[in-house]
Amino acid sequence: MSRKSERLVNLTIALLATKRYLTKAEIFRSVAGYSGDTEAKDRMFERDKDDLRSLGITIELGSFDPLFEDEAGYRIKPERYQLQLKDLDALSIALLSQAAKLWREAALGPSAQSGLRKLRSIGLGADVDSIVEVTKSSYSAPEQLPDLIEAITSRHVVTFEYLNSQLESEVRKVEPYRLSNSRGYWYLIGRDAEKSALRTFRLDRFSSSINLSPKSDAFEVNLNELDEHEDNLFEEVNVATLLVRKGKSPALRNEGAISEYNAEWDKVEIQYHSTTHLLREVLWAGENAIILTPDDLRQTLIQSLEKVVTSHG
Amino acid sequence: MANQSAPMQEVARLLDLVPFLSTHSHISLKELAHEFGISEKAMASELTALSMCGLPGYTPYELIEIFFESGFVTINNHDALDIPRALTQLEVASLLIGLEILRDSAIGQDEGLISKIDRLISQMKSLLGGAIEVGDNPITAFQTIIEGAIAARKSLSIKYLSPVKDEATTRIVDPLEIRSERSHLYLVAYCHNAQSVRNFRLDRVQEVIESGSAVISEEVPNEENPQLTSVMIKVSGDQRSVSEALSTSEISPDGTVELNIFTPEWVSKAVIAHAPHLELLSPQDARGTVASAAKNILALYSS
To answer: Are B59 and B98 in a shared domain?
Structure first.
């Protein structure tokens, strides 16, 4: 056990217990572990503040009496130090334990466990192993998730290697804004430094681990821009009309509004945002689907197939 | 925590030990070490360190008191630190994602539990301020049923969207295991219709019903790959999306890739679906199949 950990614990206790702001001089005089000349102590204290912040502990700077120009001091407000969740009962704790145990050895396992430990400190017991019947396969999350969550919440710029559409690794530098999960994939949305615009990255296309720049609070999130970006991603702007053979192509049928066309075909209207994706789905259906509109989609499909006929002839 | 050094992890443990001990008086050293994920020896030395900490002054009156009584631990004089610490964002996110999975698994079970989980989820979400969003989850309610059937050696009737047949078909299968590969979950099962072992992507499974009948698949045919065909494909254009769709990362620099596949019809379908970015190089006769499949589709557009 290093003296440093003890000093940090002692500093936390002193700043939590005080009812008023403690000046640096008072801290150096009273908290165990500060040694050397004033400059050395100052450096120690600055590092300690950063270290405690990395644990989520905020040291506030303020002065006891704003009317007097007295020296600013420091304290930790108990309301910001303590567990944010109120009114938890034994059942909630039991459910949270079960949620934490789903991770087992997966990437988020250690942080789920440390979070659970804090919750169990409330002392409600509730050590029930399973209330909800759950899947036995342990859930796996991308290994980059902990680093990215850390980077998003502390606002570190990240660099990583990413596979481009030609499967080559490219170095990307990104201000990470948001992580989201959909249909089995994790996505990072952030501002790409080089392109100076928001981009979405799929985590399974990362080809390296994440490198966090040392500086925290390195950027601000532009929420309007973020919402706009996501709207553009998920807004289904285009509509295609297809004919789908009766009893066939459940995948296409699931995506659109179906109406009767004739004895052989149904008409299906599909909203889509990715031309490539829709073309691929229609082509998977082979002779069971025809694009009626839009015409450019129809032409793209015809030209693509003509190329296939030529190359395989 | 993501990139926290060992000394900082120690500090976090020391701070969390205090409120934990205060509600778990007379806990055994063994249990305590297990709870905090470190060895008993390390825990004993961290407890000793904790007994050196306290309020300024650091007289016995101000120091935290730790008692070991025949392997059991008690804490005293610890008021200032006797507060469970706030959850970090990473901890909140981990618990939140766990809760989302739990809720998906709970579908069809106790309604009261589900609304309780929902309330916890919204509490957790408000702590994150929108930085992390968990959408529809890859774990489906079916998974629980399937695992139950594997354990109980039951057969299942599944409705499956077959990309090759382009139909939803109902099959009787004997489930063997659930396997995770390249971001997708697969049910590996002996399929009575195909009379061989098949992989079913779980997100294409539409319905699962226990079909009760006795399982015969204890003797699963050993030749897992009965008729594996080797095909050569040349990829142009978007190599990444092709490699993801074909579940292969072995595209050589000139764009060719060799695949070993079960169902020859599948290759022809895949080449058409990725038109015009794929060319089937071999086997030769399958090239003709691709060309005529493309012609047949084109015929639909000329009438």
So the answer is: no
Instruction: Give the residue from B182, B213, B244 where a domain finishes.
Output: B213
- Mean per-residue pLDDT for B140-156? 78
CATH number at residue B251: 3.30.70
Number of domains in chain B: 4
Q: What burial class does residue A245 get, using C-beta atoms within 10 Å of its C-beta: 0-12 exposed, 13-18 middle, 19+ buried?
A: middle
**Same domain for B77 and B12:** yes
Are residues A175 and A218 in contact, defined by beta-carbon separation less than 8 angstroms? Answer: yes
How far apart are the two ends of chain A, measured CA to CA in Å? 75
From CA A241, how far away is CA A257, in angstroms rounded? 10
Q: Could you tell me if B130 and B151 lie in one domain?
A: no
pLDDT (tens digit per residue) in A127-145:
565 567 666 555 567 788 8
B292 domain-assigned: yes
Average pLDDT value over all residues in chain B: 82
Evaluate whether A101 touches B102 at the Cβ level (below 8 Å): no
Query: Does the ipTM surpass 0.95?
Result: no
Range of the domain at B126: 89-136
What does R_g of chain B's alpha carbons equal in angstroms?
Answer: 29
Give the pLDDT of residue A126. 59
In sequence order, what are the beta bridge partners of B27?
B73
- What rounded mean pLDDT belongs to chain A? 85
Please compute, for residue A66, the number of CA atoms within 13 A of its CA located in the half-sphere on the CB side. Answer: 2
Sign of CA dihedral A105, A106, A107, A110: negative
In chain A the beta strands, taken as DSSP E runs, fall at 60-62, 73-75, 158-163, 169-182, 185-192, 197-202, 211-212, 238-245, 256-260, 265-272, 289-293
Task: Find the CATH number of the domain harbouring B47.
Answer: 1.10.10
Kindly determine whether residue A99 and residue B98, on different chains, have CB atoms separated by under 8 Å: yes
What domains does chain A contain, in order, with CATH numbers? 3-78+140-233 (no CATH), 90-130 (no CATH), 238-312 (3.30.70)
Q: Which position has the higher pLDDT, A182 or B37?
A: B37
What pLDDT sits at residue A241?
94
Give a yes or no: residue B289 inside a domain. Answer: yes
**B223 in a domain, yes or no?**
no
In this complex, is the C-beta atom of A35 within 8 Å of any C-beta atom belonging to chain B?
A: no
In whole angstroms, how far apart are CA B210 and each of A97, B5, B147, B167? 30, 50, 11, 21
Query: Do residue B294 and residue B239 come from a single domain?
Result: yes
Inform me whether the C-beta atom of residue A200 falls under 8 Å from chain B C-beta atoms: no
Is there a contact between B228 and B260 (Cβ–Cβ < 8 Å)? yes
Q: Which residue has better confidence, A227 or A311? A: A311
Q: Kindly tell me if the per-residue pLDDT of B35 is higher than 50.
A: yes
Nearest CB partner across the interface for B291, out of A32, A109, A309: A309
Average pLDDT over residues A36-58: 90
Q: List, for residues B168-211, the tens digit of each pLDDT value.
A: 888 888 888 877 666 667 888 888 888 777 888 887 888 888 87
Mutate to test the interface with A, among B20, B62, B88 (most CBs of A within 10 A): B88
Count of alpha carbons within 13 Å of B230, Cβ hemisphere only? 3
- B233 neighbors B259 (Cβ within 8 angstroms): yes
Same domain for B15 and B51, yes or no, is yes
By the CB < 8 Å criterion, does B106 face chain A? yes
**CATH number of the domain residue B172 falls in:** 2.30.30
Residue A217 structure tokens: 């609070």
Question: Is residue B68 one of the residues assigned to a domain?
Answer: yes
